[in-house]
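Each record in this resource describes a single protein on a pair of labelled lines. With that in mind, the following record should read easily:

===
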Amino acid sequence: MKVGLAQIDGIWPNLALMKLSAYHKRLGDSVSVANALERFDTVYASKIFNFTPDWDSYPIYSDKVIGGTGYDWKISLPEEVEHIMPDYDIFNCKWAMGFTTRGCVRNCSFCVVPTKEGKIRRNAPISEFWNGQKEVVLLDNNLTAAPDVLAEDCAFIREHKLKVDFSQGLDARLMTDEMAREIGSVKHIGQIHFAFDSMSVEKPVFRGLEIMSQYVRPGKITCFVLIGFDTTPEQDLYRVTKLHELGYESFVMPYNKSDPYQRRFTRWCNHKAIFKTVKWEDYKG
């Protein structure tokens, strides 16, 4: 059987498609990235965001299988595919990637994770999706809600002298001295990410950031700042300004990317050369 893989959106190699590639290759099937010039028996199409348009024209195929939150959050990989070593070569992926936990203890109304994955639970050890790479990207949604797994992950990373990216961010509200020590004991790819999504979490977020900054310098810490959901423009400016004053970086995440204010504020804050030299009230972009 000839299988095609169609990654509709996302800047990182698609993990589900890499696992499907490994699974079909194990069955003896031919697998390649889908294109419009070839005929495929099956095409797997995956997208993350529901606002991403489909390709104007799919490759010629006999069957199409769609998945990912952008299509239907109820669709998931079969267990024999979920726990297979991904085929990193299909997308020329140079790092290991996977989930050591699934789910989250929070119930944020703007997030699909609690509905899609449920409560926090173990998913797999790093060894299940690592095959010797020097870097590992953890996709866990709230690893700080599983301190035992976090400690095991950090021990593995230290033992194998790896660099890690806790890509979806860590929960500052759950931060303890012990967890901060573990996180600070490993080498990181880029920044360590947290979130400051609402004014209602200001105190616990800054308490957690203060604990974390005892083990890494504040400039190594970035906070995702959600705007346009339940905050005012004044509160948005307050959050990014206070983070900057305390030495932390901020990265604005607009809830509605079509809103002119949210788009403009995002451009101003996330362009750090502008953010650090031009006041918001003077920004003409």
